[in-house]
Design a protein that fits this description.
alpha/beta, 559 residues, Barwin-like endoglucanases, 21 strands, binds ligand MGD, Rossmann fold, binds molybdenum atom, Dimethylsulfoxide Reductase, domain 2
C-alpha cells in the first residue's frame, strides 16, 4: 500500500474497492472501513462482479463483467476529463506522459465502456462523480485486479486514475493493494522474487551482487558461476546475474526439462496452482522434490524428502504486513518433535550445498550461514537492505512496529509513500487498452467460472480444514450459483452440480445465492475433493506471470 490502513480509514472521503472482498479476506481493514462509513460517512464505490458483503456499506456497486477493469477505469477517466475534474496542478507538477495517455482514454466513451463492462452508463457517471467530488479518495484492490492476464496493466490503470485525480502522497488517498498472506510483503522485501535481492536490489546490478557476495563471503573461482551467463572475473566477489523463474514457470519447467528439482517451502501447489491435472503431471516429472511443511499436505505424496518446519506460534521473527509495517512475532509454544524454524533448516541446507559445490567461502560478516537466532538475521538485513536499515528488534520490541522505508535507527518510518515525488521522479501515465480474458464462455462452455476464497478457510485448507470450529461452520465445498441459473438448470435446493472446463471437472454442492450474477459460478480451492484449480486455466500475465484465476469458461450440470 502507498498509504496506511489508518489514514485511509480516517481521512479518505471516498474509496474505490475494486476486486477486493475486503470484509471476508481482510476482516480487520474491512471493519475499519465499515466503521468509517458508519461514523463519518466514507463513500464507498465497489467494483466487483459479485455482490460481496462490503456492497452493503457502499453507496454504489458497479457489477462489471469479469476481466473488463481496464475498460471500466478508462471509462471513468474519460468522464473525469469530460467534466474537467482532473487535478491539473498535480498532473503538471508531478507527472509525465499525459498527452499519449489522454489520447488512449478518448477511445473509451461511456456507451462503449458500458457495452464491454455491462455497467449502465448512468452508473459510470455516478462513480466518476463520487470519486472526484469527494477527495481525497483511495483506491483499494486485491486479487480481482491482479489475477488476470492483464494484472499488471489493471494496476497501472488504477495508478493512472489516482494520478489524474491528484490522489497520491496525502492521507486518505493512494494506490492500496491489500497483500494476501501475513508476510507476503516481507517475503518480497527479502528477495523472494526471481529478479531481486532483498530491498528490490536487482540481480542484474553488479554493485548489488558484489555487496551481497562480500557479506556472504562468496568468491568466483573460475570465470563461470553456475546459472550465470556472464564471464565473471575470477577471484572477485560475485553472484549469478541471471534472472530466475517464477513459480508459474518453474513447475511447467519440470515437465519440459528446464527444471530438475524443486525445494518447496510453505506452498501446496497441488491445491493452489492453476490446472491441477497439469501440475500433477509436472510434479511427477521432477527428478527430486523437497517439501518443507508444517503438515502433510496434498503435495506431500510428490515429495522425496519432507522437512518439518514450525508454525508462526513456535518461532520468533518478524512479519511485514500490507502497509509495509514490520512487526515482531514471538515464540509462544515449543516446537514438536524434530521440527525446526524454517530459517534454521534453510541455513543448514545452504551450508551443505556450499560445501558440496566446492565454492570458496572467504571471510565475510555473514559467511558460513551461522545464525544463532533470528536477531542475527535482522542485523544482516539492516546492513544490506537500505529500506530496512533502521528496523531493529530492539526498536520493534518497544512499539507497534515500523513502516519501511526506515533507513536509520533514528528514522520514524514512512506511513505514506510518494509525498513529494515518485520513486522514478515524475509519475508516468501509461496508455492502456482493454484486452479480453484468455478464455471466454462459448456454446460448449457457456458460463464464467470465478474463483477465490471464503471467510472460514485459508487457501488449500491445509490449516483450516484441521480446525473443528471452522469445519462446523463451513465443512464442505460449495459452489455459488445464481437463482436464475439454478432455475435454468433445474436445481432444487442444495443439490450437487458438476462443473467442467477444458481442463477438468469437479462435483460439489450448489449454494444458490445472488452473490453471483447470472452466467457465473464461483468456486473456492479450499477442499481437495472439489478444488477450483482442477478447472482453472494457466494463462499468465506476461510481466508478473500471475495466472488468470479469475476467469475461465465452464459448463454446469446437475448430478
Ligand atoms: N479468510 C481468508 N482470508 C484470506 C485468504 C484466505 O484464503 N482466506 N487469503 C489471503 C490471500 S493470500 C489473499 S491474496 C487475499 C485475497 O483477497 P481478495 O482478493 O479480496 O480475495 P478473492 O477471494 O481472491 O476475491 C477477490 C474479489 O475479486 C472479485 N473479482 C473476480 N473477478 C473480478 C474482476 O474481473 N474484476 C474485479 N474488479 N473483481 C473481480 C471477486 O468477486 C472477489 O470479490 O486474501 C487473504 N485473506
Ligand atoms: N483458483 C485459485 N487459486 C489460487 C488463488 C485464487 O484466488 N484462485 N489465489 C492464489 C493466491 S493469491 C495465493 S497466495 C496462493 C496460496 O497458495 P499456497 O501458498 O499454496 O497456500 P497456503 O495454504 O497458504 O500455504 C501452503 C502451505 O504452507 C504451510 N505452512 C503454513 N505455515 C508454515 C510455516 O511457517 N512454515 C512452513 N514451512 N510451511 C507453512 C501450510 O501447511 C500449507 O500447506 O493460492 C493461489 N491460488
Ligand atoms: Mo495471495
Amino acid at each position: 500500500m502507498s498509504n496506511s490502513m489508518e489514514d485511509v480509514a480516517n481521512a479518505a472521503q471516498a474509496a474505490l474497492i475494486i476486486g477486493s472482498n475486503t470484509t471476508e479476506q481482510h476482516p480487520v481493514f474491512g471493519s475499519m472501513l465499515r466503521r468509517a462509513v458508519n461514523k463519518r460517512g466514507l463513500k464507498i464505490v465497489v467494483a466487483d462482479p459479485r455482490k460481496i458483503d462490503i456492497t452493503e456499506f457502499a453507496v454504489l456497486h458497479l457489477q462489471q463483467n469479469p476481466g473488463t477493469d481496464i475498460a471500466l477505469i478508462n471509462g471513468l477517466m474519460y468522464i473525469i476529463l469530460e467534466k474537467g475534474w482532473e487535478d491539473k496542478a498535480f498532473i503538471e507538477e508531478r507527472c509525465e506522459g499525459y498527452d499519449e495517455f489522454k489520447a488512449t482514454v478518448k477511445n473509451y466513451p461511456p456507451q462503449k465502456v458500458s457495452e464491454i463492462t455491462g455497467i449502465p452508463v448512468e452508473k459510470l457517471y455516478q462513480a466518476a462523480e463520487i470519486l472526484s467530488v469527494n477527495r481525497p479518495s483511495a483506491v483499494i484492490w486485491a486479487m480481482g485486479i491482479t489475477q488476470h492476464i492483464t494484472g499488471v496493466r489493471n494496476v497501472m490503470s488504477l495508478a493512472n486514475l489516482q494520478m489524474l485525480l491528484g490522489n497520491m502522497g496525502k492521507p486518505g488517498s493512494g494506490v492500496n493493494p491489500l497483500r494476501g498472506q501475513n508476510n507476503v510483503q516481507g517475503a518480497c522485501d527479502m528477495g523472494g522474487l526471481p529478479n531481486v535481492y532483498p530491498g528490490y536490489q536487482p540481480v542484474t546490478n553488479a554493485e548489488a551482487r558484489e555487496k551481497f557476495a562480500r557479506a556472504w563471503g562468496l568468491k568466483v573461482e573460475s570465470g563461470k558461476v553456475e546459472g550465470s551467463e556472464a564471464n565473471l572475473q575470477p577471484s572477485t566477489f560475485n553472484l549469478p546475474d541471471k534472472v530466475g523463474l517464477t513459480v508459474t514457470e518453474m513447475i511447467p519447467g519440470l515437465a519440459d526439462g528446464r527444471v530438475k528439482a524443486l525445494y518447496i517451502l510453505g506452498e501446496d501447489p497441488i491445491m493452489s496452482d492453476p490446472d491441477t491435472a497439469h501440475i500433477r503431471h509436472c510434479l511427477e516429472a521432477a527428478d527430486f522434490i523437497v517439501l518443507e511443511e508444517i503438515f502433510p499436505s496434498e503435495t506431500s505424496p510428490y515429495a522425496d524428502v519432507l522437512l518439518p518446519g514450525v508454525s508462526f506460534a513456535e518461532k520468533t521473527g518478524t512479519f511485514t504486513n500490507t502497509e509495509r509495517r514490520v512487526q515482531m512475532v514471538r515464540k509462544a509454544v515449543e516446537p514438536v518433535g524434530d521440527a525446526r524454524p524454517d530459517w534454521w533448516i534453510i541455513a543448514e541446507v545452504a551450508k551443505r550445498i556450499v560445501a558440496g559445490g566446492g565454492r570458496q567461502i572467504a571471510e565475510g560478516p555473514h559467511a558460513g550461514w551461522d545464525y544463532p537466532d533470528a536477531n542475527t538475521i535482522m542485523t544482516e538485513i539492516n546492513a544490506l537492505t537500505p529500506s530496512y536499515g533502521g528496523i531493529t528488534f530492539a526498536r520493534l520490541e518497544q512499539g507497534k512496529g515500523l513502516q519501511w522505508p526506515c533507513p536509520t535507527t533514528e528514522h520514524p518510518g514512512t506511513p505514506i509513500l510518494h509525498t513529494k515525488q515518485f520513486s522514478r521522479g515524475r509519475g508516468k501515465f501509461m496508455p492502456i487498452d482493454h484486452v479480453p480474458p484468455a478464455e471466454l464462455p462459448d456454446d460448449e462452455y457457456p458460463m464464467f467460472l470465478n474463483t477465490g476464497r471464503v471467510l472460514y478457510h485459508y487457501h488449500g485448507g491445509e490449516m483450516t480444514r484441521r480446525a473443528s470450529g471452522l469445519m462446523a461452520v463451513y465443512g464442505r465445498p460449495l459452489v455459488e450459483v445464481s437463482p436464475l441459473d439454478a432455475e435454468k438448470l433445474g436445481l432444487e435446493g442444495q443439490q450437487r452440480v458438476r462443473i467442467t472446463s477444458r481442463r477438468g471437472s469437479i462435483e460439489a454442492e450448489a449454494w444458490v445465492t445472488d452473490r453471483v450474477p447470472p452466467g457465473m459460478v464461483y468456486a473456492n480451492f479450499h477442499f481437495p475433493e472439489a478444488s477450483a484449480n482442477e478447472l482453472t486455466i494457466a494463462a499468465l500475465d506476461p510481466t508478473s506471470k500471475i495466472p488468470e484465476y479469475k476467469v475461465c469458461a465452464v459448463k454446469v450440470e446437475v448430478v
